[in-house]
């Protein structure tokens, strides 16, 4: 590893043999080191690859500010998340997660009042797997530190896990969460139905929407579907197909995307399944079966 910049006695920016930049941490790693010199790999305790909105300078500042034991605990939290959610949990989540953990533990030590996160209810039913993993993370923190962080901390932890899977920043994930919630509200309003947020139909619909976001961000498109399939669905479920078109327009207006007709087709299929399941529960305000006199 060749040194590009020394941030302080413990943190340096270096480049490997493939010209990939790394922010490196090690006690005394930067002491009397100059740019251009070669580092002893045995002295490197941790390495971080800049990416997304995290510049090398920002990573270096975070590594220097966050206690080493909090980074170590965050590493275990990331390992837990990978075990539960899959190997696609990105390493880029480690430092933001450690930074959040550091501040949460400080607030707990100072007995500061709980933070009320504005997306609390949306996150709980849009990302149930991430919320369950976040609760397991709180269990890990409690076992390691003897401190039980408030349950509301599952909200930012879950959002960090969504970021880790979609390689987005927190503001983009928060915007996506608001839009997913708005789309479900559109369906409620248009069809006057109750939506069971815990249902399999909602989980599948939200998963599809999340990957639609990912495809659009990466400029990827679905495989082209036959024109007969579009015509058949438009004929069988015209209202749902129209609703899917409105959702596509909402996303196009919000993000400037060119939402393809194939995306609209799959949105229409999910809207149809969601409406069918919700309609079985009865219209909004209708008494449940067995209720009443």
Give your account of this protein's structure.
- The chain is α+β, with helices and mostly antiparallel strands and 293 residues long.
- It has helices at 56-65, 68-85, 94-109, 120-126, 128-145, 154-166, 170-191, 200-218, 227-236, 238-255, 261-280; strands at 2-6, 11-15, 21-25, 46-48.
- It has 3 domains: 2-54, Transcription Regulation, Sacy, Chain A, CATH 2.30.24.10; 68-166, PRD domain (PTS-regulatory domain, PRD, Orthogonal Bundle); 170-280, PTS-regulatory domain, PRD.
- Helix 2 crosses helix 3 (94-109) and helix 10 packs across helix 11 (261-280).
Element layout with pairings:
Elements: E1 2-6, E2 11-15, E3 21-25, E4 46-48, H1 56-65, H2 68-85, H3 94-109, H4 120-126, H5 128-145, H6 154-166, H7 170-191, H8 200-218, H9 227-236, H10 238-255, H11 261-280
Antiparallel strand pairs: 1-2, 2-3, 3-4
Strand order of the largest sheet: 1-2-3-4
For the residues shown, what is the average pLDDT? Answer: 83
Remind me, CATH topology of the largest domain? PTS-regulatory domain, PRD
Quaternary organization: single chain
CATH homology superfamily of the largest domain? PRD domain
Summed up:
The chain has 293 residues and is an alpha+beta fold.
Q: Can you give keywords for this protein?
A:
single chain, about 290 residues, alpha+beta, PTS-regulatory domain, PRD, 4 strands, globular, disordered C terminus
């Amino acid at each position: 590893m060749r040194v590009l910049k020394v941030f302080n006695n413990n943190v340096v920016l270096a480049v490997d043999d493939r010209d990939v930049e790394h922010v490196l941490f090690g006690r005394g790693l930067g002491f009397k080191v100059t740019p251009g010199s070669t580092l002893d790999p045995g002295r490197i305790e941790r390495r971080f690859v800049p990416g997304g909105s995290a510049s090398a300078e920002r990573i270096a500042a975070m590594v220097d500010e966050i206690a080493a034991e909090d980074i170590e605990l965050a590493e275990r939290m990331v390992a837990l998340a990978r075990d539960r959610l899959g190997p696609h949990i990105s390493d880029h989540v480690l430092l933001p997660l450690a930074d959040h953990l550091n501040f949460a533990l400080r607030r707990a030590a100072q007995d500061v009042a709980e933070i009320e996160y504005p997306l609390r209810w949306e996150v709980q039913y849009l990302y149930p797997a991430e919320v369950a993993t976040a609760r397991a993370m709180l269990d890990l923190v409690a076992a390691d530190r003897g401190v039980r962080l408030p349950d509301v901390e599952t909200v930012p932890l879950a959002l960090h896990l969504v970021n880790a899977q979609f390689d987005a920043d927190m503001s983009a994930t928060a915007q996506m969460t608001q839009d997913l919630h708005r789309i479900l509200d559109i369906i409620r309003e248009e069809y006057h139905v109750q939506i069971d947020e815990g249902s399999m139909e909602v989980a599948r619909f939200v998963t599809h929407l999340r990957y639609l976001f990912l495809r659009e961000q990466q400029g990827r498109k679905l495989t082209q579907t036959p024109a007969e399939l579009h015509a058949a669905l438009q004929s069988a479920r015209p209202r749902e197909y129209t609703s899917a078109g409105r959702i596509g327009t909402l996303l196009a207006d919000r993000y400037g995307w060119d939402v393809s007709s194939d995306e609209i087709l799959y949105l229409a299929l999910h809207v149809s399944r969601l409406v069918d399941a919700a309609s079985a529960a009865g219209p909004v305000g209708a008494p449940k079966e067995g209720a009443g006199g």
